[in-house]
Write a structure and sequence with these properties.
Blueprint (H helix, E strand, L loop, with lengths): L1 H30 L5 H21 L12 H22 L4 H8 L2 H12 L6 H18 L5 H28 L5 H22 L6 H27 L2 H4 L5 H14 L5 H34 L1
C-alpha cells in the first residue's frame, strides 16, 4: 500500500513537471516572435525527433514497430500534427492561458472519440462533463464578439480536438504493447516531413535569439513528453490526470510576466468551469473505482 502511494506521488510530480515543460514550450514559441507557424512546428519536432531517435538507439528493440499498430500510429500522427499546428497558430494570436486552456479540452474530446476508436461508451455523467466543458470553452472563445475575433480561439479549440483524438489512437496502440518512445518518434518524424515543404518554400531567416527560443521549445516539448509518459507508468490516468491542468496556471503566470496578459472575466469563468468539471470527473472516477473494489472484496 505504501509503495502504491509513493508511486502515485511520483506520478503527480511527473505530471506537474510535464505541465511546466509544456507551458514553457508555449512560452518559448511565443517569445520566438513573428515566424511562420510551420517553421515553428518543424523546429519543435526536429528536436523531439533527434532526442527520441537517441533513446531508441539505446534500447534493445531499437526501431522495431509492431505491424498491427501501424494504422493506429499513422492516425495518431495525422490528428496529432493537425492539433499541434492549430495550437501553435493559436498561441501566436491569443493569450497563453487561453490557448493552453483550449488545448486542455483534449481529455474531453478523447472521451468522445473513444466511442468510435476504442468502442468505449461514456455514461450519462461523462456526457454531462463533456457538455459543461464545451460551455466553458465558449466563455473563452467568446463567439458573440464576432467571427474575426473568435476565429483564433476556434482554431485553438480544433487543436484540442486533434490532440484528444490523437490520445485515443495513442491508447489504442499502447494497449497492443507498442512502446511510447516509438510513437513519439513516428509522430515527430511525420510532423517534420509534413512541415518541411512549408519551411523550404516559406523560410523566414531566424536570428540567433529566435533559434535559441525554438531549440528551447523543442527541448521543453520533449521534456513534457517524457515526463507525462513516466507519470502514467507510476499511476493510472484517472488518479493523476487532473494535475495536468496546472499547465494553465503556469501559462497564465508566463503570460502575465512576459507579455502583461491579464485574462478577462469571461476567460477566467471558462477556466473555472473547465478545471472545475475536470476535478469533478477525476473525483467521480476515483469514487467509482473505489466502490467497485469494495464490491469485489465483499463478494
Amino acid at each position: 500500500m505504501m509503495m502504491v502511494e509513493q508511486n502515485k506521488r511520483r506520478g503527480i510530480l511527473h505530471i506537474i513537471f510535464a505541465a511546466l515543460c509544456f507551458s514553457l514550450m508555449a512560452l518559448f514559441l511565443k517569445l520566438a516572435g513573428d515566424l511562420p507557424t510551420m517553421e515553428k512546428a518543424f523546429f519543435r519536432n526536429i528536436v523531439a525527433l533527434f532526442m527520441s531517435v537517441v533513446l531508441l538507439l539505446r534500447s534493445e528493440e531499437k526501431f522495431h514497430i509492431k505491424k498491427e499498430s501501424i494504422p493506429g500510429i499513422l492516425l495518431r500522427c495525422i490528428f496529432g500534427t493537425t492539433g499541434l499546428i492549430c495550437n501553435f497558430w493559436a498561441i501566436d494570436r491569443i493569450g497563453l492561458a487561453d490557448s493552453n486552456m483550449l488545448n486542455k479540452l483534449s481529455p474531453f474530446f478523447a472521451m468522445f472519440m473513444s466511442i468510435f476508436i476504442l468502442k468505449e461508451k461514456p455514461n450519462v455523467v461523462e456526457w454531462i462533463t463533456l457538455v459543461v466543458a464545451i460551455i466553458g470553452a465558449a466563455f473563452i472563445i467568446k463567439p458573440s464578439q464576432g467571427i474575426v475575433s473568435s476565429f483564433p480561439a476556434l482554431v485553438g479549440l480544433l487543436g484540442g480536438f486533434g490532440a484528444g483524438t490523437a490520445y485515443s489512437f495513442l491508447r489504442s496502440v499502447t494497449a497492443k504493447g507498442e512502446r511510447g518512445t516509438i510513437v513519439v518518434m513516428c509522430f515527430s518524424l511525420f510532423s517534420t516531413i509534413i512541415t518541411l515543404p512549408f519551411l523550404i518554400f516559406n523560410y523566414v531567416p531566424m536570428t540567433k535569439y529566435q533559434l535559441a527560443m525554438m531549440l528551447l521549445a523543442g527541448v521543453s516539448a520533449m521534456g513534457g513528453q517524457l515526463n507525462i509518459t513516466a507519470a502514467y507508468t507510476f499511476a493510472p490516468a484517472k488518479e493523476i490526470s487532473v494535475f495536468d491542468y496546472s499547465q494553465v496556471l503556469f501559462a497564465a503566470l508566463w503570460g502575465f510576466l512576459f507579455f502583461f496578459e491579464i485574462p478577462d472575466v469571461y476567460s477566467i469563468a471558462g477556466y473555472v468551469i473547465i478545471i472545475g468539471v475536470a476535478i469533478f470527473k477525476w473525483y467521480y472516477n476515483l469514487t467509482g473505482d473505489r466502490n467497485e473494489k469494495q464490491e469485489q472484496s465483499n463478494s
